[in-house]
Every structure is written in C-alpha cells, then in structure tokens.
C-alpha cells in the first residue's frame, strides 16, 4: 500500500469516547483530576479504540521498536539477543524489544518500508500499542523517514505509539505535517536529556509524564512509560464511581461540583 493510501485511512480519535472516558475518571471516588497524565493517556486511548465502557477496555498487547542505521548494527544485534537495557525494561511490561535496521538510500523507499514493517508486525502479533526508540543520530534522514512511514501506518491502523527521544519526535513532526491526525495516536513517554528534547515535544503539543535524565532516546523511557499506561487502565477498570459503590451522596470535598470550584479558583 502506498503512503497516499495509508494517509487516507487516518482518522482522528473519537472525541465523544474520550469525553465519556474522562467523565468516568471525574466520577471515580477520588479528587477530580488527581491521576493527571494517567487520566489523559487512558481517555485518549479510549478515543483511539472507540470505547468507553470499563468492561471493553483491555491492556493492549505491545512491542517496543528500536530503529537504527547500519552504523548501529552492533547495538541492534545486542537488542536482538536481549542483551540491552531496553530488553529488560520492555519485558517488565510484557513487551518485546525489536531492533529494526534501516539500510535504504531513497526517501520514498524508506517511507514505505517503515510503513510495511509496522503493518507486518501489527498483523502478525496482534499488537495494539507500540513504543518507538532510535539508536541513530536525529539527523539520520533515512532512519527518520522510515519512522515517519511507520507512524503513519500505525495511525492508519489505530495503533498508538509511545514516542522516545528527539529522532522519533522529529519523525512524528514530519508525519503530522503529512497527516495532522497522526498526533492523536502519539504519546510522549519521557523527556530525554538530549539537546532539544523539550522543544521537540512542545512542537508536537505533547507533554511527557516522565523526566528520567536518560541521555538518549533508545527506548528505555518508552518502556518505563508502558507501566504508567497500564496503571491508568487499571484505575479506570478497577476503581469505582460513587454510583457503582452504591453511594448516593458524595463526600462533599470529593464531589465534582466542589472540585470544579477549586479548579476555577486556582
């Protein structure tokens, strides 16, 4: 499938489901908004899936894709043999770290190759969430272009991607320039210690829940953030609203009305 066809399949996340999911969070027995980014991630995931009932929401099967060029072949081999930090961190959340070596020389080929790789992995493994890391220099045009194609394909398949590092964020910006709705499917895993990392996320309009001072975007931050992704879903599924708990009168300090008043005064 050509990139133009992939782009045509990309649609925004369902805003109605996102709003209903956030309403459920607001009505849980807790202060409104107290789970912060966990609520935002889970509500947006509901919008991507087009669901909001807690019974319909499951923990997504996920993998972590680490993109690299020929210069990083030795590191890629270590990942493929599960001998790199990202392997351990990904496995903790049930994910497998996969190294993807980009050796193409034409931008159009790299764009479609990245898309094809994601399509194959998602179909073969039934993946519903991806993490992207990159071992290459952010200026490696072919690797960045392959990731752009991959992000477009993921969005077309309604598979969210946890972004990690400057190179991945630059690829996301390029994908968003081609199809703005791609950003509905992009989550920021962490702010790396790379120069320009904060600015790259700001340009995408994304904020990250973690700042781990990891010096690169090789995927470790995305792997750790998978744990937070699970935590938001767990709260959504297992916490009760006042109605579900059979409480007919909310504790005043936790009521939505009171919390809304506090928010307005802040």
From TrEMBL:
<dbReference type="InterPro" id="IPR003200">
    <property type="entry name" value="Nict_dMeBzImd_PRibTrfase"/>
</dbReference>
<dbReference type="GO" id="GO:0009236">
    <property type="term" value="P:cobalamin biosynthetic process"/>
</dbReference>
<keyword id="KW-0808">Transferase</keyword>
<comment type="similarity">
    <text>Belongs to the CobT family.</text>
</comment>
<protein>
    <recommendedName>
        <fullName>Nicotinate-nucleotide--dimethylbenzimidazole phosphoribosyltransferase</fullName>
        <ecNumber>2.4.2.21</ecNumber>
    </recommendedName>
</protein>
<keyword id="KW-0169">Cobalamin biosynthesis</keyword>
<dbReference type="InterPro" id="IPR023195">
    <property type="entry name" value="Nict_dMeBzImd_PRibTrfase_N"/>
</dbReference>
<keyword id="KW-0328">Glycosyltransferase</keyword>
<dbReference type="InterPro" id="IPR036087">
    <property type="entry name" value="Nict_dMeBzImd_PRibTrfase_sf"/>
</dbReference>
<dbReference type="Pfam" id="PF02277">
    <property type="entry name" value="DBI_PRT"/>
</dbReference>
<comment type="pathway">
    <text>Nucleoside biosynthesis; alpha-ribazole biosynthesis; alpha-ribazole from 5,6-dimethylbenzimidazole: step 1/2.</text>
</comment>
<dbReference type="GO" id="GO:0008939">
    <property type="term" value="F:nicotinate-nucleotide-dimethylbenzimidazole phosphoribosyltransferase activity"/>
</dbReference>
